[in-house]
Amino acid sequence: MKVTIEVNGRSTVEEVEDRTLLVHYLRDTLGLTATNVGCDTTSCGACTVLLDGESVKSCTVLAAQADGHRVTTVEGLTGEGGELHPVQRAFSNQHGLQCGFCTPGMIMASVSILAENPKPTRQEVREALEGNLCRCTGYHNIVSAVMEASGQEVDG
Amino acid sequence: MSVMGTRVVRIEDHKLITSGGSYVDDLREPELTGAVHAMFVRSPIAHARIGSIDVSAAREAPGVVGVFTADDLDIAFAPGPTGEPWLARDRVRYVGEPVALVLTEHPYQLADVAELVDIDYDPLDAVIDLDDALSGRTLLFDGTDSNVAGGKAKPFDEKLFDDCEVVVTRTITNQRVAPAPLEVRGAACAWGEDGRLTMWLSTQNAQIARDILAGGLGVDPGTVRVIAPDVGGGFGAKIGADPEAVVLGWASRRVGRPVRWFETRSENLTAMTHGRGQRHTVTIGGRRDGTVLAYRLEVVQDAGAYPRAGAGMLPGFTRLMAPGVYRIPRVEVATRSVLTNTTPIAAYRGAGRPEATAAIERAMDLFAAEIGMDPAEVRRINFIRPEEFPYTTPSGASYDTGEYAKALDAVLSAGGYAELRAEQARRREAGDVVVLGLGIAAYVEITAGDGMGESGRVDVNPDGTVTAYTGSSPHGQGLHTSLAMLLSDQFGVPMDKITIRHGDTDEVPKAVGTFASRSLQLGGSVLKQAGDQVIERAKEIAANLLEASPDDVELNVDQGAWQVRGAPSGGTVTWAQVAAAAGEDGLSADVWYGDVQPTFPFGAHLAVVEVDTLTGKAVLRRIIAVDDAGPVVNPVTFQGQRHGGLAQGVAQALLEEMSYDADGNPTTATLADYPFITATELPDFELVDMATPTTRNPLGVKGIGEAATIGSTPAVQNAVVDALAHLGVRHIEMPATPQRVWQAINDAREGR
Ligand code: FES
Ligand code: FES
Predict the structure, then answer these.
(1) What's A132's domain CATH number?
(2) Which terminus has fewer CB within 10 Å in chain A: N or C?
(3) String of b and e for A29-65 (b: at least 16 CB within 10 Å)?
């Protein structure tokens, strides 16, 4: 089938197999490999992207379901001139990433958290990130990154 | 000004936060064009003879490029009766063991084809329970007379506890857990027209992987190039190369096409090695004044189905580190590892040392409870004192430096121990449903305990930039930043003019890589030595250019330039000029650091938990940690390592366990079932700094990768037990799930 999906502000039109998952559409069809796959049970959130501005696990969405919609991945967060999104910058400043495998998903989940709750507490950030797993950081610095990006005191 | 010890944001980050890392499944290298996709068909049964394998239907399926079984493999596997085959031949020994390999054109075809491989299994009794395994009633391997893969039950000294007023003994399980790096295992490979195999592998050690592949494939190591791209976490479970990698290299040669493989998470949880998996019987004895006189540790290590690191290395480290931070006059340790029909056990963050610490720290609490003394006090009485270092333990470790009491006092005061004890008493008195528990662990561990060396090479390029090649193989630790900081400091070259390279066996042919918290102390020390050699050589060249004697020139590290000593106005020469004048061979030093002396990081953790006595739910409220690994190069990544370690340690204490039913079916084989720790189950971490240097390497540093994991597990476990101590609870097994905790409360109330 043919799908038309706006990805990071660019319209993409591709012929795909019906069962193609959005994450594979991004990674294999478009070559946008930042979005990762970490599980097969919708548990880890490594594949988190924004679909019409809301975070979804792209391993659990068919490309067909995104037909006619807008998708943002971490590749689309950086500005034209290469300037980092505040959440990207905060992840680096606060050392909210180590191996980086969870990071694209974490960053997209964090963007979505802040869109819904611009001034969260540390505890609220933890709760909102429950569906995003990280094996490296112990989450402390990820929470700090979201706090920094929200313009609040990092220590809450 | 020196950057050492200052907070430097990682140079690794930019790519990872903008376009994402280049993990193995992300690679779009030209050599991989037209690659076929691979999936292993794995045993669904823990123990069975393979009757027959019918691949005819699978071979006919659309998109199939190849279906292979052990009969197709023309490469020899590990010799000996317990040798692990590349693919199971006539018998399977754990759920998840690879039996066949399927290659298809499209990844979506893999699962369909794998289904069509028809394997006839003739089930055997599954050996899951350790006592059952030890009994040898069912043997895993023909031609053996026992399932014991290493060690023996030592005859113990019957008099060991003779002079003790108090002796406590208990059997404790240090449960099996899944390393679960967020990136599962993956590989991509291609044979070139030059007859060489290139494999991109998610590994911690490209060079070890190369040697395993070459050995397995029966080719010269020079024929194989392994490249570790970005690696999404390893935690010990990606050391070297697993058997799958050898089969993939073989299959690529066989079908004449590039092959790529990226396992599923469910495969990862059953077929990547697990960690821990020990049963301890601890016996501790001493006087009522708190002095511990004797300690005995009997370890039964579950090795899983094939003898990997679980057979010898893990229990070996547990034995070595058994007495922990204490000056115990008499220590006896016996270890046995035994094969079971479960996933093989190997290294996982700490690899044998967390187990040793968990045992002794639980034993100290049992002893403290028995004599009615505060656990902090008992520890203080028995600590090895600072003036006793270097200290050789009865188990044969030579500890370098330590300030154990200082570390404990630091966490107790930072945590407000006295106030917390008062709050605990208040809640108990008031009969609160939610009680408070305080858990202490003091630990010492061994890093770079492998005794192997490391390589490092430093080049100053003609444009004055520096390129360093390290044998270490970071995969999240931020070592590029730390090494660039070291070199920047040494050469006076800004960090953005320094490039660190690692993980390509053609660039770095000889190396060991990353495990055992070895990378900064070995990879960093060798680069320092290479840097010193480069500077020695540069001094002569600079002297020539400055028309001075080498003894009179010096490197001005603030400016990154050479000058005549004490006469900075007399002209300088830059690194670029020196490198340009270095002649044909360039300005370079390549060093092998062979004089590896292990170091012994230590620390103390205080955990504060709340336990709901109605539901049994234990929640970690605070964890306060000293993790002393000597001087810190970059506090950013140093703290990051501690955070990650804390989380994994807490996970073992409260949540995570890889479990099997009696038939050997894994019951936690997906991330929906395996209780991988999340952000909501952890508090903010409270880190207290201490830095006691070692004399055993030029940088004075010890390893930090595993330390916090080692302290946090027993601290949290002890806290859960402590919360219920007033009810008479003395021990709760890990993970301290609500069910276990509730059961312990109930048993205590019923006087059981
Ligand atoms: S890949 Fe794990 S939730 Fe999507
Ligand atoms: S940074 Fe490695 S999984 Fe999050």
Answers:
(1) 1.10.150.120
(2) N
(3) bbebbbbbbbbbbebbbbbbbbbeeebbbbbebbbbe
Residue A29 contacts B where some CB pair is shorter than 8 Å: no
Three-state DSSP class for residue A11: strand
Q: Angle CA(B52)–CA(B57)–CA(B63) in degrees, nearest 5?
A: 130
- Domain count within chain A: 2
Candidates A74, A133, A137; nearest CB to B678: A133
Contact (CB, 8 A) for B711 and B441: yes
* Fold match, B275-447+598-749 / B454-593: yes
Joined tokens for residue B194:
């030059």
Residue B563: helix, strand or coil by DSSP? strand
Which architecture, in CATH terms, is B454-593?
Answer: 2-Layer Sandwich (3.30)
What are the φ/ψ torsions at residue B590 (nearest 5 degrees)? -125, 120
B530-568 per-position pLDDT tens digit: 999 999 999 999 999 999 999 999 999 999 999 998 776
Residue B22: DSSP 8-state: -
Within 8 A of B231 by CB-CB distance, chain A residues are 99
The conformational region for residue B195 under phi > 0 = left, psi -120 to 50 = alpha, else beta, is left
Domain presence at residue A154 = no
Q: Are residues A29 and A61 in the same domain?
A: yes
Domain assignment of residue A113, yes or no: yes
**Domain C-terminal end among A43, A76, A109:** A76
Domain boundaries, chain B: 275-447+598-749, 454-593
The span from the CA of B116 to the CA of B101, in Å, is 12
- Chain center to CA of B320: 17
Q: Which two tokens stand for residue B259?
A: 């092959």
- For the segment B88-100, the average pLDDT, to the nearest whole number, is 97
- The alpha-carbon gap from A94 to the nearest alpha carbon of chain B, in Å, equals 8
Output the six-digit token pair for A90.
């905060």
Q: Does residue A48 lie within any of the structural domains?
A: yes
For residues A12 and A62, membership in a common domain is answered with yes
Q: What's A53's domain CATH number?
A: 3.10.20.30
Q: What are the tokens at B109?
A: 């075809």
Pick from A27, A135, A141: CB nearest B182 = A135
**Among A residues 82-141, those touching chain B with beta carbons less than 8 Å apart:** 84, 88, 91-93, 95, 97-104, 107, 122, 125-127, 129-130, 132-141
Cβ–ligand 1 distance for A86 under 6 Å, the answer no
A37, A59: one domain: yes
d(C-alpha B27, C-alpha B20), whole Å:
12
- Domain carrying residue A124: 86-149
Distance, CA of B166 to CA of B705 (rounded, Å): 37
pLDDT of amino acid B568 = 64
Question: Contact at 8 Å (CB) between B556 and B492?
Answer: yes
- Over the stretch B27-73, which tens digit does the pLDDT of each residue have? 999 999 999 999 999 999 999 999 999 999 999 999 999 999 999 99
pTM: 0.97
Asked whether B294 and B161 are in contact (CB, 8 A), the reply is yes
Q: Does B647 touch chain A (CB under 8 A)?
A: yes
CB B352 within 8 A of CB B321: yes
Domain spanning B275-447+598-749, CATH class: alpha beta
Average pLDDT over chain B, rounded to whole?
96
Rounded CA-CA distance A86/A78 in Å is 9
For B477, the token pair is 């630790």
Alpha carbons within 13 angstroms on the beta-carbon side of residue A88 total 20
Place of tokens 């336990």: B611
In this predicted complex, what is the ipTM?
0.98
pLDDT tens per residue, range B237-292: 999 999 999 999 999 999 999 999 999 999 999 999 999 999 999 999 999 999 99
Pairing of strands B98-104, B36-42: antiparallel
Of A12, A47, A76, the residue that ends a domain is: A76
Together in a domain, A59 and A99: no
